[in-house]
Amino acid sequence: MDLIVFWIMAPVSVGAAVLMLLQRNAVYAALFLVLNQFTLAVFFVLLDAHFLAAVQVIVYAGAIMVLFLFVIMFLGVDRREALVEPIRGQRGLAIGLGLLLAAGVVLAIGLGIGLARAPGPAPGGDNIEAVARVLFTDYVFPFELTSILLIIAAVAAMVLARRKARGLPDLADEAPAGREPERVP
Amino acid sequence: MRTPIAFFLVVSALLFTIGTVGVLVRRNALVIFMSIELQLNAVNLTLIAFSRQLGEVNGQVLAFFSMVVAAAEVVVGLAIIVAIFRRRVSANVDDINLLRW
After folding, report:
1. Which three-class secondary structure state does DSSP give residue B98?
2. Among A99, A130, A153, whose Cβ lies nearest the Cβ of B75?
3. Measured between beta carbons, which residues in chain A are less than 8 angstroms from residue B85?
């Protein structure tokens, strides 16, 4: 049963990733990435990581991809990507080196298959409970640090994407921030 | 029968390679970003596969942290892309070849 689900999902996963690469339209690329992330969530369930499967669907396929689609729509979807190669032969070289990388990594997995072939012991008890216990005891300090990281990221996003950024020299020809209300007679 | 961990590792390797090629080949900054996300997801799959193999949840906690970092990275990165797009109307990485503008 496990193997059947895996063999259905693995081609879908890799196929969605390849199609994401081949899409000229960024929206379709984002949707293929969503499909890929759903298949990864299925893999997480197969690996008994139920908590992370839920997080994968909610955070990645939900929040992050909605953010991506928002920015794609914001920037305009009908922009065509330039087909010129700035470095001669870059595309072929990249694909060739990519195949080399894949061959190398798969070879490394093949060499280490003695480790991976042994069936892992079934984890006892609830996965969510086990993750929570480790997360809130051994890793409680890094967990608090991630909250600081997220706050910094949110503030940074607001500062970067603000419409009228102060202190940047070539905005001087535009109206300074806060001038607009004074124009009202 | 349980799926051997090596199968997941091979899928993860393929996804990581596709993401790498995507970063090298594509010119659209947003699609390059999606390829980076693909690479991060592939690494998460590896972490969880090894976590399952070893029968403990430390790898899952690490994957959880990598998801948090990826979320922060996406937020800041997309804000940078929007800020660049405001200055020069382009999401093509070849147009952005100066560190200052």
Report:
1. coil
2. A153
3. 75
Note whether residue A10 is domain-resident.
Answer: yes
Sequence-distant (6+) residues with CB within 8 A of A64 are B37, B70, B71, B74
Contact call for B25 and A91, based on CB within 8 A: yes
Q: Which DSSP state fits A171?
A: G
Go through chain B and tell me how many residues it has: 101
pLDDT tens-digit map of A19-60: 998 888 888 999 999 999 999 999 999 888 889 999 999 988
What chain B holds in terms of domains, given with CATH numbers, is 5-95 (1.10.287.3510)
pLDDT in tens, A74-114: 887 656 666 666 677 788 888 899 999 989 988 888 887 66
**B63 CB within 8 Å of a chain A CB:** yes
> Quick one: A86 exposed, middle or buried, by C-beta within 10 A (0-12, 13-18, 19+)?
exposed
Q: pLDDT above 90 covers what percent of chain A?
A: 35
Nearest chain B residue (CA) to A46: B3
Burial call B35-64: b when 16+ CB within 10 Å, e when fewer? bbbbbbbbbbbbbbbbbbbeebbbbbbbbb
Three-state secondary structure call for residue B43: helix
Beta-bridge partners for A94: none
Q: A132 is in which domain, residue-wise?
A: 126-165
Per DSSP, the three-state class of B92 is strand
Burial A16-29 (b: 16+ CB within 10 A, else e): bbbbbbebebbeeb
Q: Looking at the structure, do residues A15 and A75 belong to the same domain, yes or no?
A: yes
